[in-house]
Amino acid sequence: MSTAASNSPIQFVVRPSEDRGGDNHGWLKTFHTFSFAGYQDPKWSSFGSLRVLNEDRVEPKTGFGTHSHKEFEIFSYLVSGELEHKDSMGNTEVLKRGDLQMTSAGTGIRHSEHSHGGKQVHFLQIWSVPSTRGLTPKYFTRHFTDQEKQDKLVRIVAPIGAPGVTEAREAEGPAPVHSPLTLFATIISPSKSVVHTLGSKKVHIHVVQTSGYNTGKSSGASIRLNGSTSISEGDAVFGTGEPGDKIEIENTGDIPAEVLVFDLD
């Protein structure tokens, strides 16, 4: 962990990819940004309502068997491959690149997730703490193309009641969440940049590890924040500022950078 000097009013703390928890289980290669399962670090237990951010790769014909969840908002961001989801609400779906699946676990659900087809599936599993307990479980899916995200920040998850958010199972616009969390996704071309304006006081930025599984020092796509703080694939930044503060996210490498930006209370 390091605090990066910056001309920005936003204070950035860098978390290098190699400092994440996780393991190679053979069927599952996983990284944990926050304490999860056998990885426990009190310095990294949550950030705002964000509780889990796991970057998972599941081998073909394997996956997570049926298990229970309650009182979490659980969403999956598909990077590559196909993920088959089944749950106790009767939902069965195969998710592909560009899909965003949200399960509001509420009072409790059971589900399974398996690699579908003959290729490894790479996805980010994200949990947030709901603002209200005892909710009725619900399931939502959304789809966002690479073209939509190219050199633009696209809002893919947003709080219920926010503009453009609908509670339909499938719809245009962001998936609804019962947490003070807004998630944006972008794919930034080399030498291009996007600008994020803080809607809250906390921001978390994660560069997806699209160039392949790497447990060492980060490599691949690289970005620079507000002209000074540089990170690469698997790295993350935690920032604090004020609503209205701006972050320029510039691709300083020679390949596209897939980036997630969490705006958090």
From TrEMBL:
Residues at which Fe cation binds: 67, 69, 111, 113
Taxonomic superkingdom: Eukaryota
Annotated ranges, domain Pirin N-terminal: 18-127
Protein name: Pirin domain-containing protein
Cofactor note: Binds 1 Fe cation per subunit.
GO MF term list: metal ion binding
Keyword Metal-binding: yes
Named cofactor requirement(s): Fe cation
Pfam families membership: Pirin
Assigned protein family: Belongs to the pirin family.
Keywords assigned: Iron, Metal-binding
Transmembrane region(s): none
